Amino acid sequence: MIVLANATEISIASLFAAGIVPGILIGVVIMVINHYFAVKYNFERSDEPFSVRRAGKELYRSSFALLIPLVLVGSVMGGVASVVEAGAITALVALFTGVFVYRTIKWKDCTSAFRRAFRNSAMVFIIIAASGPFSWLLTSLGAIGDLETWLLGLADSPILFVLALILFIFLLGTVMDSAVNIIIVGPVLVNVMSQAGFPEVQAAMVVIVGFLIGSVTPPVGVAYFTSATIAQVRLEKVAIALIPYLIGLFLLLFFILVVPELTMFLPNLLSN
User: How far apart, in Å, are the Cα atoms of 71 and each of 12, 87, 99?
Assistant: First the structure.
């Protein structure tokens, strides 16, 4: 969201607010599919029955961890801190929670954590740096202009435009990393959707959700490879198991695209 907001000059606070409802809906879709398979294949259940008291106890135990995203989003949306300041504050809250509240992080672990943080940040900055020349090359070759012309040519038929856009996002997500797609192609798609009559914030959320779904889409999904490695399961088996989830998530992406209220309700409410 931060990278796309900087590239398109959209309010980061508006994007944070717009992402809340789609984020909840993504969780609901995945839980519904999980429940279906859990019942169908009779997955092992907890011996302890569900109770409000137990749920409240677990909610209390996780409340400090749940504060971390609330601090990040709330400080930006509330205008208390800039994105950079909110990131620093959130990191301190996470460090305090891990070291003093849950006591799962030892001071000796912080060195490797800082090292990983620097490495991950460097990877993102390298992608951003490389995206500039690559974007210039695509523009010079006319690829960006041709893409805009093709999509805008379909804008007269809203359904055809929506289906073409989702198909394009899906195909691009199967061959390129989500971060690269958001950086290079994201601003172009936001501009095209804006010209087609969609609010910029809604367009940005469609791009973000669509390309993040691509992170679990074979054959180049980073999360797809990572999860298969962690579970020690063959890639083709994971790909087959992903099909119901991908169908559900892309159907949700379709609704996010055709129902503006899903993304614009909270930003409009906060702006008033």
Answer: 15, 9, 18
Residue type, 99: V
Q: What b/e sequence results for 147-181 when a residue is b if at least 16 CB atoms lie within 10 Å of its CB, and e otherwise?
A: beeebeebbeeeeebbebbbebbbebbeebbbbbb
In the chain, % helix, strand, coil (3-state, to 5) comes to 80, 0, 20
Please compute Rg for the chain using Cα positions: 21
> How much is the mean pLDDT over the chain?
88
Confidence of residue 143 (pLDDT cuts 50, 70, 90): confident
- Report the distance separating Cα 90 and Cα 76, nearest Å: 11
Cα 116 to Cα 102: distance, rounded to the nearest angstrom: 21
SS3 104: coil
From residue 5, alpha-carbon distances to 15, 132, 183, 208 in Å are 8, 16, 10, 11
SS3 227: helix
**SS3 of residue 74 by DSSP:** helix
Contact between residue 206 and residue 257 where contact means Cβ atoms under 8 Å apart: yes
Note whether 19 and 195 are within 8 A (CB): no
pLDDT recorded at residue 76: 85
Q: Judge whether residue 220 has pLDDT over 80.
A: no
More confident residue, 224 or 131: 224
Confidence of residue 250 (pLDDT cuts 50, 70, 90): very high
Residue 165: name the closest of 245, 129, 173 by CA. Answer: 173
Measure the CA–CA gap between 89 and 67, rounded to whole angstroms.
Answer: 12
